[in-house]
Recover the amino acids of this structure.
């Protein structure tokens, strides 16, 4: 059957954006000079120690030197402070065909007062598309054959990015869009209250991509037994079906099965126990046992629903919980990122996750949180340029420059706050703090990252400012 013609999207400046792909910048990785900010309390190794460990490629890890002295391997967590176009070029040396999940949340081109530059001025949609084209094209080469890319946008660029993504990844590899519900309730909207964004998803090769899944939701409980993670259900066996009055025991204890549900039911349960599907656990001081159903965690998933609820308010609270509240206007909720990343790494806990519009570092925290939760060894690669933080309402912003400052609170008894001067400094500090926090409960968790920047040629030729 003849294939329908592949449609392309045209805009002024597209040829220049495509031309960028033909001229790889002469750039290389460099270890970032430690700024004054994080001390040992941050829980991450020093830049020197991280750098030293980075020189050797980890087992099986492909290394790419990016024509410089620093080796970046697929075994490393990486945080790059640079323009993402240069970083994407350099990642081709170490990560081509290796990344399972790419999540990006680029500037939306809305013109809103955000903590980073969000508008493309006169260039409008054309400028935005010119910015995105080379970045998405380079992303494609980094994806594994079963890799997927999630692109979050609002209405402003949704139509345009769909066409651009289809052109780059192929319309046949477009999986559709999730709706992210980020707000609920009223507001002084002019016409209606917009409480959602879109997360468009493409596959490198749609035939290789498995279902998008999520863990069964609470009250489901997971436990690791003999090194395996199981969904543990101690109330699947009930006295009777239907509603229960509060306080009454609905679980049917093993010792009561025959009198309540009969011999056949007990025989069925005994067979399950013999096969290891159920175990008996003493129940309080009743002297009886609950029948507990164990389902291997990798079989205890359900498919994702197309609407993902994760309120923006939660994203702000996530930063507050790390002592970084009020620094960044609209961080995505960690819960959103754990949901998206998990959906494609449920059974692939060593996967590499890339976010090259990293902002406050939500994706880095989400990757660490997932590893802490399921014992995985996913790695993150984050890229964020050292853009000065713009004041957001109620924000405490810090010094200009690439680092951050430590500022004492008015009250000398208050803990010293880290006030980032740039978004990349915030991102770094957030990932360090999140890692330190998670490691307190999971000492085995790997939270170190290569702390890199890119040196070499100056601004890329023809690169639109964004
Ligand atoms: C919408 S924000 C991302 C927010 C992030 N998802 C979070 O949860 O914090 C977009 C980010 O991309 C960054 N950015 C824009 N252009 C960039 C570029 N060319 N290279 C690297 N970062 C860039 C901006 O500085 C901003 O921090």
């Amino acid at each position: 059957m003849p294939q329908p013609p592949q449609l392309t999207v045209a805009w002024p400046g597209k040829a220049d954006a495509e031309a960028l792909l033909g001229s790889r910048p002469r750039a290389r990785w460099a270890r970032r000079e430690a700024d004054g900010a994080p001390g040992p309390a941050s829980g991450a190794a020093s830049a020197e120690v991280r750098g030293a460990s980075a020189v050797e490629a980890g087992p099986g890890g492909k290394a790419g030197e990016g024509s410089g002295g620093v080796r970046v391997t697929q075994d490393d967590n990486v945080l790059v402070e640079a323009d993402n176009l240069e970083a994407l070029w350099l990642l081709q040396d170490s990560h081509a065909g290796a990344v399972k999940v790419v999540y990006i949340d680029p500037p939306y081109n809305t013109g809103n007062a955000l903590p980073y530059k969000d508008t493309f001025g006169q260039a409008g949609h054309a400028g935005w598309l010119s910015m995105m084209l080379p970045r998405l094209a380079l992303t494609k080469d980094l994806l594994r054959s079963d890799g997927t890319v999630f692109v979050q946008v609002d209405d402003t660029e949704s139509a345009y990015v769909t066409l651009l993504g289809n052109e780059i990844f192929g319309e046949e590899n477009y999986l559709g869009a999730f709706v992210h519900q980020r707000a609920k309730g009223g507001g002084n909207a002019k016409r209606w209250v917009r409480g959602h964004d879109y997360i468009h998803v493409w596959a490198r090769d749609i035939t290789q991509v498995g279902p998008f899944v999520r863990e069964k939701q609470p009250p489901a409980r997971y436990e690791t037994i003999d090194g395996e993670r199981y969904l543990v259900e101690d109330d699947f066996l009930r006295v009777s079906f239907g509603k229960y009055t509060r306080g009454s025991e609905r679980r049917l204890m093993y010792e009561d099965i025959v009198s309540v549900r009969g011999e056949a039911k007990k025989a069925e349960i005994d067979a399950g126990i013999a096969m290891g599907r159920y175990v008996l656990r003493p129940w309080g001081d009743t002297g009886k046992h609950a029948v507990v159903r164990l389902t291997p965690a990798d079989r205890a998933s359900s498919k994702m629903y197309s609407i993902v609820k994760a309120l923006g308010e939660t994203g702000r609270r996530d930063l507050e919980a790390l002592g970084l509240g009020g620094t960044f206007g609209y961080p995505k909720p960690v819960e959103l990122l754990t949901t998206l990343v998990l959906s494609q790494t449920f059974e692939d806990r060593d996967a590499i996750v890339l976010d090259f519009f990293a902002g406050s570092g939500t994706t880095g925290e989400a990757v660490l949180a997932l590893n802490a939760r399921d014992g995985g060894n996913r790695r993150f690669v984050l890229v964020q340029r050292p853009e000065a933080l713009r004041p957001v309402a109620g924000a405490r912003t810090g010094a200009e420059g690439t680092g951050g400052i430590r500022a004492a609170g008015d009250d000398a008894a208050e803990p010293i706050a880290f006030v980032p001067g740039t978004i990349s400094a915030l991102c770094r500090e957030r990932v360090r703090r999140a890692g330190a926090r998670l490691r307190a409960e999971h000492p085995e968790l790997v939270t170190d990252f290569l702390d890199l920047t890119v040196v070499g040629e100056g601004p890329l030729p023809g690169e639109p400012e964004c």
